[in-house]
Amino acid sequence: MFENLSEKLENIFKKLKGRGILNEENVNASLKEIRMALLEADVNFKVAKDFIEDIRIRALGKEVLDSITPGQQIVKIVHERLVDLMGGVSANIKFGSRIPAPIMLVGLQGCGKTTTAAKLALLLSKEQKKVYLVSADVYRPAAIEQLALLGKQIKTGVFDSHGLKDPVEICVQAVEQARKDGYEVIIIDTAGRLHIDELLMKELTKIKEKVNPAEIIYVADAMTGQDAVNVGAKFNELIGIDGVIMTKMDGDARGGSALSLKSVIGKPIKFVGIGEKIDNLEVFHPERMASRILGMGDILTLVEKAQANIDNKTALELQKSIRKNNFSLEDFRNQLAQIKKMGSMKDILGMIPGLGKMKALKDVEPDDRELVKITAIIDSMTKEERCDYLIIDGRRRKRIALGSGTTVQDVNLLLKKYMEIKKMMKKFNQKKGVKSLMRNFPF
Q: In terms of domains, do 26 and 119 share one?
């Protein structure tokens, strides 16, 4: 997400930082480029215009032009304005005092409401909320069955609406059932249409009146660009929304809708969908997102992912192995398993400050399938082979390749990479620092 915009801004700021002194002409030329970058990223025209004018006023001030590092000062201003543009601070769901608290998801057909309902339920479950799901979509074939399957996958309650035809009645009965069963939150997956029409809005208005939702959240498809913003504005006008969940953010390299929503609709983005997996929903943090757009990484999110997915016992064992210079293929496999839990390699690398700018990794597209292949090869080894790679001769390599469904060349490549990593770990253990580690990184 924001890949195109990030690259363009990085080039603009590189030129700015290369100038020891900035004048009005330099600043205006750079702002013109930033404006074009925003428009090409599909940012709303008025939002881009106001954004640039605000930066111009601050950038041409005495504090910036007389600064020792004027280029850095402008980057700081742009970062601050991006944070403001996206809402300033992360916005949490307000559950209110009702139990269960109804959360109503609205949006057009195909925006990903049903999957998002399950993703949100899983996220709230991790926050120790007891969540119930209900499908009020009686029009789309298999919509109710889809939510039931997703509910089973995440092990949460799902209201059985079979036999009921009225969406409003379904929601009323589901809330009552959730109350009886002691659920704290009920997520209502409403029906969508190809476009906003009178029938859809009447139905949603009736559901709103009957269940009195704690929050109405608009689910927007990031890949539809400014259409997502315009549709959101219409939903807000007709029924009122409290926030937005942006889906398919991982498939949108522009990201203009995410930058425009808060300014146009006046409602915050609360969550973003970053992949197809059921756990690929994240709280939206404007400051962290602004840092990622400007290539500054997102260490806080990386740390949170690590804390949530990496087993402390495994991490301590790895630390001991590295200190003893005894990093085995068993350790290597365990670490790959931990990395896979955290998400795609591309996302992880993007969260590390400065890593995306490194020439050695600039054109590298980390392939998550390689992690699967490597794991399969190591799993096909005996315990002795994993502990001592030196005993893996030609005959053993053929057996390992056959057992893992790979080739001998794949096994040889893995062992080569493993030996490089083992050397890297040794150098890092000798306290030659991060530069040494990155210089020897084999992927």
A: no
Pair 161, 26 in one domain: no
Residue range 107-139, pLDDT digits in tens: 888 888 999 999 999 999 988 899 999 998 888
Q: Which letter does DSSP use for residue 254 in this model?
A: S
Given a cut of 60, is residue 233 above it in pLDDT?
Answer: yes
d(CA 437, CA 360): 13
Question: What is each CA distance from 300 to 285, 319, 351, in whole angstroms?
Answer: 10, 22, 9
Domain span including residue 356: 301-439
Do 178 and 270 reside in the same domain of the chain?
Answer: yes
Q: Which helix (H) or strand (E) holds 133?
A: strand 131-135
Q: Would residue 296 count as lying in a domain?
A: no
Sort 291 into a burial class: Cβ within 10 Å, 0-12 / 13-18 / 19+.
Answer: buried
Count of Cβ atoms closer than 10 Å to residue 52 Cβ: 20
Mean of pLDDT values over 5-12 = 82
pTM check: above 0.85: no
- The answer to whether the CB of 58 falls within 8 A of the CB of 77 is yes
Tokens of 269: 């983005």
